[in-house]
Amino acid sequence: MGRRDRRKAYEEENTRKKSGWRGVLLFILLPLLAAGIWGATRLLDKWDASLTPSTLEVENREASQTLPEWILPSFIPVDGTSRRGEALEGVEGIVIHYVGNPGTTARQNRDWFANPESEVSSHFVIGLDGEILMCVPLTEKSSASNEANGTTLSIEVCHPDETGKFTRESEEALVKLLAYLCRRFDLTVDKIIRHFDVTGKICPKYYVEHEDAYAAMKKRVEASLREDAA
Hints:
CATH superfamily of the largest domain: Peptidoglycan recognition protein-like
Strand order of the largest sheet: 1-4-3-5-2-6
Structural class: alpha/beta
Strand content: 5-15%
Helix content: 40-55%
Number of strands: 6
Order of helices and strands: HHEEHEEEHEHHH
């Protein structure tokens, strides 16, 4: 083999080696590059998500603009059971409930509504200190009052003990909320009912067992409506 042939063979061998190394490098680098791109995409998605308000955040913010400041929107997610996302057929009444769990807070009951295992909810929950959380929009059905769900708003009230009697702060908040809803939806006090009046369930317990307390509460709502109309 002449010098020219040997040089040509040497160059061809070098070319094959370089090609082989390039193939190995590409084999190693391409998956790493793909992983890097995937990771960067995930980070960007998370960054975008952190900047984009959730549906509940948007709902809460919009509701706060149309509600009195003493009502705190704290909507539960639409899950098909507790909050079905179904439109109310109209507001023809307001149903009062008691939570049935002595000593629990408004937040605890709201969070139970949002629990996947729960199949109940209420438009409002009133706490032991009179705080009012709004859990379901006023345009949607709650899961509280059985066959009356389609045409009523529901209010759950916390209570400190087994008697079911509301604290003074809770009852004051209830009267205030009922008067507000009656004005907003043009309802009279006879449209304020108990869960008991829908199904016969002893709820709210104290107002079922003490009709005088229930009547007195409604008279306070009526007085508030008269004052506003004066």
